[in-house]
Amino acid sequence: MNNKEFEYKLPNKSNSDESETCRTQNNSLIIIGANGSGKSQLGVWIEKKGMNNTHRVGAQRSLNFGEYIQLKSQEQAENLLQYGTDKKSGNHDNRWGWNGEEYNYSTGLLNDYEYALSALIAKKNNQQDIFIKECKEKESQKQQHNNVPETVIDKLKQIWQNVFPQRNIDFMDSKVTATLKKSDDDTIVSYKGNEMSDGERVGLYLIAQCLCIPDNKTIIIDEPEIHLHRSIMNRLWTEIENERKDCFFIYITHDTQFAVNHKFADKIWVKSFNGIHWDWEKIEESTLPEQLLLDIMGNRKKVLFVEGTADSYDTKLYSEIYKDYYVVPCGGCSSVIAQTKAMKNTPQLHDLECFGIIDRDYRSDHEINTLKINNIYTLNVAEVENLFLVEELLEIVNTIFAKPDKNSIEEVKKHVIEDKFLNEINRQILESTVSELKYQLSIVDIPKDDENFAKQKLINLQKDVDFDKIKAEQEKKFNDVLGSKDYKQVLSVFNLKGLAKSIGRYFEYQNKEYCNFVIRLLQGEKAKDVINAITPYLPKEILISSCPPSSP
Fold this sequence. Notes:
Layout (H helix, E strand, L loop, with lengths): L5 E6 L7 E6 L3 E5 L6 H11 L4 E4 L16 H10 L29 H28 L11 H12 L3 E6 L2 E7 L6 E5 L5 H15 L5 E5 L7 H14 L4 E6 L2 H6 L4 E8 L4 E5 L7 H8 L4 E5 L6 H9 L3 E5 L3 H12 L9 E5 L6 H8 L3 E3 L12 H10 L6 H36 L8 H14 L2 H18 L2 H7 L20 H9 L4 H8 L18
Parallel strand pairs: 3-9, 3-10, 4-8, 8-9, 12-13, 12-14, 14-15
Antiparallel strand pairs: 1-2, 5-6, 6-7, 10-11
Helix pairs in contact: 2-3, 3-5, 4-5, 4-6, 12-18, 13-15
């Protein structure tokens, strides 16, 4: 946080010829949005609205420079860096190149690496010249002169050391030299600056750019993450910002982690650009985790919150089935519920559709219908792994393995009902009873401001929530399903992790690989067939993405 107040301009949403002035004590602004949303064009707009006070580093930038740095005066070098010409200009056109019709402000290749290095050397020489002149004056008056001041090169080397601790950089005889100390034998390896890695060259380029820009400028960096490993990216920009506290930094990025790590920054979400107007919104605080919030803003798809992790079957299945959605794994079902509600209640995301999809587990129809109010829907099977077991899918697998009849399918059904469900039914009844008890207890509203009323509520609760009654209801439900031997009904109530990994053998396939085999089918020519088989067990309220037709 900076005590200085900064000012920046953004386009009026209805008339981009007009601007809105924003003020902040943060020394940076993050502009984030999906690819093609108009972020870079917005950077151009900001630059053009403040030519005399703005310096923009485009995303397209050359990292090549010669072995020797061209020596120029500080004024000449800084003009070349800022305006693309050695004469001070009222615009920055010459920095971006001419394509025969117009200057390439947004797509032109920025080829100013050598200008930045020239400005760096010129500024250092000027600082040294001023110090030597002061020393001579002091000596002529027989006075003691000051200590040697820290030059711009000294500052660059300090930033470099903090960002690349295993490497050193030096400027001697108008050349850049890098050194690396090998950890295995402590030998020093020296190499030319123009032979550094892309990460090292872009680090030097950005440090030089920001140290050579005159005081109190707005510095716009388009895609600050290019060629930089995430482990050093934030460290680099933190070091640069600490050195240039007089400047205001605007970062145009789609790297959400970079945005999250810049905690003390204004953040703008660019939703779209129609060629004339930008639809943008300032990102305010939300109950959603900031990383997730920014990830959602960086996508233009509808959002689907699901259970599991990035590697779970939930995510793998839903990512293939719901290709028109941004699928977000949330862990447990409670997180899916919480984050779906949070997104619905986040005003800045009001134009993005969001849904949650969770396992049916042991939920009652009342609980399922209540969840629908908040766009949270359940499967028509007890848990996601049961989708691998539905009869329609088994028939596809049976055909692929060229089985002459449906005996394998019947064996799977018998295995699920008689070998598994029958042996697990008592545990299923108990778990279902406990689940219903928890739900009924969770929906009781106990007042906080009336002690007598609260006590009465608890007394009534003991009467209304009857364990024996609930257990008897669950026993009847599960025993009726078992008695019917209705395979579809069994899959709707039977919760058993690993069940889908016990049936591969019926198709002469490895048990543990069966689920992965189905995932591969979803990624291949049989995708439409598999999705059609699973669709009846998915919530109809969440539309299935279109998928390519299956092979004949």
